[in-house]
Specification:
Chain lengths: 597, 597
């Protein structure tokens, strides 16, 4: 997309009210945007498609949790301590910047103009690593490449700024709370209830679509970096990374662009076209469930109108991974502003369930029943109180507990010590073998208790909408003033328009009836009874990406047919009014326009 | 609904995860609830139905605004000063109560036990007026009827507690903001852009579905009084109250229960069954647009499963109206806990647009073009500078501006003064007639500038969901353990289930295929391959209100048909697998089960 097209896109988005700055009449607030009617309908269609593609198709459990989150939950999850971006301040003006963004901006410019290819390469490798870098490394990069504020002034050392919005709940204002920075935590809160509904079988998944809030330091980049945004997240709980994925076959043959950690560290910007099957075999993607959601996401994005040639999967570098995460892939899309993350798929390990279990004392584990019981040698131990009481006096009871509550590993060690020395050590004290009755017996083990590992596909709804807008926008050939969105009919904000060839009462009456009938059938349908030429009306509908326009003319009054026009091909076909609803519904669900008769 | 049924309902809602207390593993937070899978899907279906019934059918402009609202917006709207509930404190324990709720609770008990019919009547009238009462009147009622804290202690005088959650935006934490207490304000922010998209014609409407937040003092009543909730609101802008409503015919013949202000003040609890047409003619409902949305709301609620016999329209008492509101009707539904507001329809006059226009200096008016220009006598005035300069010296310019910018009313007054005295008064000074050239001429007036009046239907999504749950819940005859939700298929969280008659591999293979096929078609479909009896499986599906169950048996392997069972009638019919998708879709869209063949 060139600069001029980008400007025309932005103009169209505001002028036709896809989107508007929030509180515009009050001068606006950085990082807050409202969706207008076209934007809202696209969002709605996108969410419906997502729900069908993930929730319905894979029978996920969808939940709806609150935006308000009490402090203790986010202390446990680590957000209160660590959910921060590095901030730098212009030492002269006090202006705040997000460290990674200002470095990226300036480094990109340096890369573009640098002649020395080895230096250029060094800069590119630095560029690839900035995201998620710690304070020290960030400061080093700032110094090395001489990063300054936008005004050219010196910058402070980077320091963390917590991105959560704070508030308090209740009349006493003593219950600190935050607006959720991600929807995921609400899902973990409901793990137990979800697991029950899944009849306590793994794998199972819980999904949530909802608003999240991040108090961005200095949001720019319009719709791509905002302070209030919508996520669609899945937490998919699996037994272990070896567990097979039931539907993996559905995605194995997909060919996708991978940009692995190795590639990022070794060269510039190359991605590799590879099937998911090969990527799994070559261990580039670490396991099946991760691969499944990567493939499923690719299918989803392309089905809603993201350009397949502009999608890449970028693996997180080891340093960028959250300390609990095992592997993580961003799905980046190529936009005017460069490659931009719009989905992330992370293997979060068992971290979240474990920390919340620890903080609450609640059991958030799953009992995995074996297909058949496993025979296993197991130690049982009993303290011999007569001997213990005599030797250890008041401490006897305490040693009894220690002996009888020890682990299988401890018993194995104790057995070994007794075999070798006739004594054993427990709680730091040396006891004689007469104090314990230790036996080994074969038992049937029916299963084991584990904390499930979780795979998290996380979608930024607003970013996907923006990507669709950029990838759908074009200008009619030979007419730069005439802009069109080539939304696919499923995503198009309004499905059709009905107009009269000329604004005459006898035609408008029929037009009005058809509109009312279509709307009653749930088809969002626009009209236009203004006095302008029909070509101008077509252009108005093109601007908001309406895929089909039915025109009522004088023949309609005779034979009850209308002309149906397709947006991109501009092909027209004559159809019966009585069949219009059915035809439109078929078109929305994927029937090619050529098949309309 | 009796007490036992209510207990069983609550049990079913939690056990089958329609809903759960938020942060339950952390002990929960009063007034916050999560929706589980069944609740989330009902919500989704309800919102879709709402969108079709209001947004698509009436071509409203739907927007999506932010939850974060900067302080100045809510100062202008009056929320910072006035969006409060009256709070009382137990003077001994410090426990906080919402004044109106604690009075209502205790007054209701007194009414129930009071023998003296005149005193009882007095209490009932007081009860009807509590909602929205001011501090003084509330305190009088507290004293008169001896209202105490739950612990029986004395209560403080009532004082206002602002219900908005406060936070701040940006790294400096100097930009105070609130979480929106209603979605309406976001709509007013976008009035101008919406009006443009409506091609500057009145009436037009903007809708929004979104989360709102109220820091309730002491939320009880489970799902009905929560701190974070979803609203669906419409702001419908009209030219004036005489403007005709285009679709009024659609609702005129509806017979509804009205509980007018007059009735509330004159007697106990009587409502009147009346058609919307008669209510309009008798001026009980003050104008057509208000009446239209009342009727449209009644149609909506009954279409999603609210019991028509348990709906009433309660008019706000003059004292309960916000100072800017002209007329307001609550739609109450009868629940276990009594009549409960689930929708409000208010005539907010031009208040909101006017205050935001004043606060921002932005023009939020509409120019109403007359059908034909109107001829009107109009004054024009010019200052005579020669005379002015001589007499008024330095002040001459200032008087020139005052003379030439005066209103038509001023000119009429000036003309009158000149006619009577030869002098006129402007800006507090007396000027002679020689200083002004005042002329009267006939001009063509093409229209006028007005601030539109707004009608606001406001729906509490959570409350409607809860009403549907209560109104749909029943127990199978002769089996009190077997609970059912008779959701209509459009609202039902899951549309169907497919199971095998017995859990055998050859049957399960077919069952699995059908499930996959239905899910792919976007039909949410449950399975159950556990080892329990089929009757138990039916019961499990009844508990979450699944309307249709298809059963695969050995005949299926021969003739590719399954048995389809309807939930409430328990009728069964044999259908072809290939036709299943089409049949289910027709049933969801309203086809009676008897027509399945």
């Amino acid at each position: 997309m060139d600069k001029q097209t980008k400007a025309q896109l932005e103009n169209a988005l505001i002028r036709r009210f896809f989107v508007a700055p929030s509180f515009e009449i009050y001068g606006g607030i950085a990082g807050l945007f409202d969706l207008g009617p076209a934007g809202t309908q696209i969002r709605q269609n996108l969410i419906s498609a997502w729900r069908n593609h993930f929730v319905v198709a894979d029978d996920l459990l969808e939940v709806q949790c609150t935006c308000l989150v009490p402090e203790q939950v986010l202390v446990a999850s680590g957000h209160v301590a660590k959910f921060a971006d590095l901030m730098v301040k212009d030492v002269k003006t006090g202006e705040c910047f997000r460290a990674d963004k200002i470095i990226e901006d300036q480094l990109q410019k340096k890369i573009d103009t640098e002649k020395d290819s080895s230096l250029k390469n060094e800069m590119q490798i630095a560029f690839n690593q900035i995201d998620g870098m710690n304070e020290t490394d960030t400061y080093q990069i700032m110094k090395k490449f001489n990063i300054t504020s936008d005004a050219g002034n010196e910058l402070s050392q980077p320091f963390p700024f917590n991105l959560m919005f704070q508030t308090s709940i209740g009349p006493s204002s003593q219950s600190k709370a935050y607006l959720r920075p991600e929807t995921a935590q609400g899902i973990f809160m409901n793990f137990k209830r979800g697991f029950e509904q899944a009849r306590q079988q793994l794998p199972f998944g819980i999904a949530q679509i909802g608003t999240a809030f991040r108090n961005e330091i200095a949001p720019r980049n319009g719709l791509l970096r905002v302070r209030e945004f919508e996520q669609a997240e899945i937490e998919y709980f699996i037994q272990n990374r070896e567990q097979k994925c039931k539907h993996i076959e559905d995605v194995l043959d997909l060919k996708v662009n991978l940009f692995s950690a190795d590639q990022q560290l070794s060269n510039h910007q190359m991605t590799e076209q590879i099937t998911i099957k090969d990527a799994l075999q070559q261990k580039i993607i670490s396991h099946e469930h991760l691969a499944y959601f990567m493939g499923k996401t690719y299918q989803f994005l392309t089905s809603v109108g993201v350009d397949p040639a502009k999608i890449r999967f970028r693996q997180h570098l080891p340093k960028q991974l959250a300390h609990y995460a095992k592997d993580c892939w961003d799905i980046d899309c190529l936009l005017y502003c460069g490659w931009t993350e719009i989905v992330g798929i992370a293997d979060r390990s068992a971290y979240d369930l474990q920390v919340h279990s620890k903080a609450t004392g609640q059991d958030l584990s799953a009992f995995i029943k074996y297909d058949a019981p496993v025979q296993k040698e197991v130690y049982t131990a009993k303290a011999v109180m007569k001997v213990l009481a005599k030797e250890m006096k008041q401490q006897a009871q305490q040693f009894k507990v220690a002996i009888e509550a020890a682990s299988q590993e401890d018993y194995a060690r104790i057995q070994k010590e007794i075999d070798e020395t006739g004594k054993f050590i427990i709680n730091g004290a040396e006891l004689s073998k007469e104090m314990i009755q230790l036996q080994k017996a074969v038992q049937s083990i029916h299963g084991e208790t584990i904390t499930p590992i979780v795979i998290e596909p996380s979608f930024g709804i607003g970013r996907i909408i923006y990507t669709i807008l950029e990838h759908s926008f074009y200008m009619r050939e030979n007419d730069e003033q005439r802009t069109v969105f080539k939304f696919n009919p499923l995503i198009a904000p309004f499905k059709m328009a009905v107009i009269s060839l000329m604004v005459k009462d006898e035609l408008e009456a029929v037009t009005g009836q058809i509109i009312k009938q279509m709307r009653k059938a749930g088809v969002s349908c626009k009209g236009d009874d203004s006095g302008v030429q029909i070509g101008k009306k077509y252009a108005r509908f093109d601007e908001i990406g309406i895929p089909y326009i039915a025109t009522v003319d004088y023949d309609t009054l005779k034979d009850e047919t209308v002309t149906l026009r397709e947006r991109d091909s501009m092909k027209q076909v004559r159809v019966k009014i009585t069949e219009l609803e059915q035809i439109i519904n078929k078109l929305i669900n994927g029937m090619p326009f050529e098949e309309v008769k």
